[in-house]
Amino acid sequence: MQKEIFFTPEEMQIIRVCLHNAPIPYDQGEGAKELKVLQEKVGPPIPRKGEGEILVECDLEKYQ
Q1: Which of 21, 30, 36, 61 has its CA 20 to 30 A from that of 45?
Q2: Domain-by-domain residue ranges, the chain?
Q3: For the segment 1-36, what is each residue's pLDDT rounded down to a tens digit?
């Protein structure tokens, strides 16, 4: 008998990101088929809204 499992939206996002960033062994061979099926089931990761990180400019001329 199979048990139903429910995930919160935050947990689903973690699953999406992990599947999207799956390590190389799962991207090749027979594991690639199962990985693709799972990625299609859960969908792509949802991008975060908001600003990205601030880029800081540094003058490193004196270290050359």
Answers
A1: 30
A2: 7-46
A3: 789 999 999 999 999 998 888 776 666 677 778 878
Give me the amino acid identity at 19.
L
One-letter amino acid identity for 56?
V
In the three-class reduction of DSSP (H, G, I as helix; E, B as strand; rest coil), residue 20 is classed as helix
Residues 6+ apart with CB under 8 A from 7: 15
The tokens describing 6, both together, are: 């429910």
Q: Could you tell me the two tokens for 49?
A: 């809204």
Question: For the whole model, what pTM was predicted?
Answer: 0.61
Residue type, 52: G
Cα–Cα distance measured from residue 36 to residue 25, given in angstroms and rounded to the nearest whole number: 13
